Queue: 2 jobs
Job 1
Amino acid sequence: FLGVLCDEVDYPASALRKRKWTDTLYPVTRQTLETLIQSLLPGRRVEGDLLIRDHEKIAGFVCALTALCVATNRFVAVGAERDGYILLPPRELWGAEAQSEMPWAERELRANVGRVAEVLPGWAPAIYSDGARWIG
């Protein structure tokens, strides 16, 4: 969830090596998360700040935010009906690719959907955005 919010050029290298990489990604994406909350809850105000440092609290916050995305039908679902889906934030907030306008995560999803279909026949991978089929 947090990873796709990072711009490709700003993606923290340490996040790729850590077991608790959400702890590294959270501070980098905090401003985007605030923007996401404001877009999901228009006209409402979040009391306090989002300066969370504890790993379990960050994980809980991201889970709750994911549920809010689902409740407002503003999310991307990646997977297959046969095995389930991973939920990601709305694609308009995804981080930019270094060389083009397309978000890097979209580039990777488009490339991988075809590979999954080849490797796992019958799985029918699909990507949905805001409740409608988007890729696959």
Note: Residues 22-40 form the longest helix (19 residues).
Job 2
Amino acid sequence: MHTNKTLWKDVQGNPIQAHGGGLLHVDGVWYWYGEDKSGPTRRYERPDGDPIVRVDVVGVGGYRSTDLVNWEPMGVVLKAKEAAYYDLCPTQVMERPKVIFHKASGTFVMWLHIDRPDYKLAGAGVAISDKPEGPFTYMGSIRPQGRDSRDQTVFVDDDGAAYHICSTDMNATTLVTRLSGDYRSLSAESKSLFIDRYMEAHAITKSHGKYWYIASGCTGWDPNPARSAVADSIWGPWEELGNPCRGGDQPEMTWSTQSTFMQALPDDRVLVMFDRWKREALGESAYVWVAADVSAGKFELSWQDVWSGFK
């Protein structure tokens, strides 16, 4: 088991570097992909004078497990590369990688937020692999219908249709776009949701016939009250439910964390993954995982001291 609010370790005793990440379940194995922030945390001044902290891009860390507790490292499955004008150059920005599996082709498709240090590129990057442990081949970045794409996630529905969900309009709007049939590009089918709500750190899943959503307000590395919502269709209408966190230390501030991913579990609960960002040393940022029972149509997250996997 793992103690929440700590930086978890893999089966080799090393800190798990999978920040801002997500899960994938294929053939009885769980895969966890996220940002490797093992490099030094540096402070930068943006052109507008707003200071930020960041770690040079290392790549996407990958881990696998059969119980969601004991994690075997797969190494860096998508690596940064020193090259002029390259999206994954260490000096650029790579955030919130998520991987989905395209069954028909046997391809693993990664989507991630790609940006420049001034955050003006705001693109959605795509990488592919024929194996879950990689290596992934980077294909480039695009913008949904020419709009900016910032914090993002992806979701595969029961019918195999996949969707890209991101912050757009300078974070004012949440944009849902259906992916192409091979999951490698964006279709023209999209819809703007939560207009003028300014949310990031999106996570979505489906359980007990409903779509469940959680996100964060836009306060950078600092915590804020979580937002949540429920709908009968991914296109909405969505009913906002407020902050679902209960108990523990500072639930009104999401336990000093920020959401990153949701996963429907085989035991009928919904797992919600959070990062507890440590701005002075981002590579030491901790994890918080809690599970909720949404069978009664309510979305409430009760604090858990430890994550011990399935019931």
Note: The chain is about 0% helix and 50% strand.
